[in-house]
Design brief:
Blueprint lengths: L2 H6 L4 H26 L1 H29 L2 H24 L3
Organism: Streptomyces chumphonensis
InterPro entries: DUF3618
Keywords: Membrane, Transmembrane, Transmembrane helix
Length: about 100
């Protein structure tokens, strides 16, 4: 045994029991952490839940923004309508499609 180890250990049974108890607790925590890292399905589920929550947050933000300021939304719709109408007129005039 090394001197450092001998210096850290005690011959008192109560102290030894306490050290064993602490070591077992640390080992249990380590095993639990390793098991969690190895559980790929659980990790995938957590990521799916996180992605779903993020999508809900983005959707709520977009809905709230659209309700507050509808002018840009209406303007964009009008531009799209004009472009589609112009494309249809040009298509009919020139016989495209």
């Amino acid at each position: 045994m090394s001197r450092d180890f001998e210096a850290e250990t005690s011959r008192d049974p109560r102290v030894l029991r306490e050290q064993v108890k602490d070591t077992r607790a640390e080992l249990g925590d380590t095993v639990a952490a390793l098991a969690a890292k190895a559980d790929v399905k659980a990790q995938a589920r957590r990521k799916a839940v996180d992605a779903r929550e993020q999508a809900h947050r983005v959707a709520r933000t977009a809905r709230a923004g659209g309700r507050r300021n509808r002018v840009p939304l209406v303007a964009a719709g009008a531009v799209v309508t004009v472009l589609v109408a112009a494309a249809l007129v040009l298509r009919k005039r020139h016989g495209w499609g």
